[in-house]
Amino acid sequence: MAASWCIEKRGSLRLDSFRENDNIPETGCLSIIVLGASGDLAKKKTFPALFNLYRQGFLQSNEVHIFGYARTKISDDDLRSRIRGYLSKGKEYEEVSEFLQLIKYVSGSYDSGEGFSLLDKAIAEHEFAKNSTEGSSRRLFYFALPPSVYPSVCRMIKNYCMNKSDLGGWTRIVVEKPFGKDLASAEQLSSQIGELFNEPQIYRIDHYLGKELVQNVLVLRFANRFFLPLWNRDNIDNIQIVFREDFGTEGRGGYFDEYGIIRDIIQNQLLQVLCLVAMEKPVSQKPEHVRDEKVKVLQSMLPIKDEEVVLEQYEGYKDDPTVPGNSNTPTFATMVLRIHNERWEGVPFIMKAGKALNSRKAEIRVQFKDVPGDIFRCKKQGRNEFVIRLQPSEAMYMKLTVKKPGLEMSTVQSELDLSYGQRYQGVVIPEAYERLILDTIRGDQQHFVRRDELKAAWEIFTPLLHRIDDGEIKPIPYKPGSRGPAEADELLQNVGYVQTHGYIWIPPTL
């Protein structure tokens, strides 16, 4: 799908800042081309994100025309009907109808010059109708496609759909994860794409980096004086990064079995969060300065030890007819990563991700060391922790020990709490895809994965993944709806994590 967009200051955000940052000509139009427009990703994520940008004034009806491209032979109205249900929420019916009328559909193969010539012709006609000077238009290709077709699609774009850049225009591509299955396949894919596009043209999107609380990590760490002296091995005992889902594969068993929970969640999403938690302060907020520091974290990682890995598979997973009966794929994994540098030597970074568990949440949990010379004898109540709740019920809170109200000098655990739903009432938190699509328009690659970063990440996990693929490490069964196997809790205990008993964080209510 493609959306053409001209610059104007409007809405709650300042579009004129795009001109200031990027030298965007006022007359040039932007086309966002989403390949795979009839697929689930486009319907559930890309179209809703673009619709929300349209509602906020970033995509305006007198400037925008939308193109969808896929192999499915359907009409414009067919595509509109397919996506309407993912956009409409009752009160927005009129806006949805206006948005859908902007859509045009082009059908074609992903390795056919004929189809991409038709796409190029449709986009060029719209750019001409908008009086966009040749060479000033910008084209953003969004790959809502499986990685297997990335190389052929890149060749077609390069041969048939490139925009001239001599008058400020550009061509960029956005590719979705998974970026390969191991180091060799990731490097092969990077080489194939890299032969056709330069690194500044490539945006490897991981929607987790667009989440509000993930983007807050750097601000929390580097804009608050009281965190700076505490954020190191002298004060922090361990750090957990957790992703839990309360449902199983649910119709995606065949796809999931090809990748598993480590490739699907830990190697990319949780590892990206870890980099933000562990990195040194960058020279500035410039994308390359931030990404340089992330790469240094990955390059400082020690090899993962088998004894610090617990793999699990929920009972009933192999009942899915699309999953092989002898599948060795983990649906839950707990592992320890270690960073060999001055700041983090000896601090375990515990990564946990799993499906079919007893709760749904994603969070960062920083556990501090015990208070030396504790005169209140309150060690058994638990340690101080700083928790960033990524989803749901976005929040950040500090778990600390306070005096229990009353006449006795006794202590209890409580919290200092910033819950977004209470503190920022009426503020709509943007979806990750909205933010990242805007970043691609601005040319801001801070929240996208660089090639050397991708390579360093795969170097960490590939040896472990190959041992799992070869059946050398077997997953432990666990019951759906449980916390997972006891072995995972034992691993956490062995590396120093102290679980708090009797305290539960309850999101504040309005």
UniProtKB/TrEMBL annotation:
Family statement: Belongs to the glucose-6-phosphate dehydrogenase family.
Lineage of producing organism: Eukaryota, Viridiplantae, Streptophyta, Embryophyta, Tracheophyta
NCBIfam families: zwf
Cell compartments where the protein resides: Cytoplasm
PANTHER family listed in its UniProt record: GLUCOSE-6-PHOSPHATE 1-DEHYDROGENASE, GLUCOSE-6-PHOSPHATE 1-DEHYDROGENASE G6PD
Catalytic activity entry: D-glucose 6-phosphate + NADP(+) = 6-phospho-D-glucono-1,5-lactone + NADPH + H(+)
Stated name of the protein: Glucose-6-phosphate 1-dehydrogenase
Pathway(s) where this gene product acts: Carbohydrate degradation; pentose phosphate pathway; D-ribulose 5-phosphate from D-glucose 6-phosphate (oxidative stage): step 1/3
PROSITE patterns in alphabetical order: G6P_DEHYDROGENASE (PS00069)
Role played: Catalyzes the rate-limiting step of the oxidative pentose-phosphate pathway, which represents a route for the dissimilation of carbohydrates besides glycolysis.
An individual GO BP term: pentose-phosphate shunt, oxidative branch
UniProt keyword list: Carbohydrate metabolism, Cytoplasm, Glucose metabolism, NADP, Oxidoreductase
GO molecular function: glucose-6-phosphate dehydrogenase activity; NADP binding
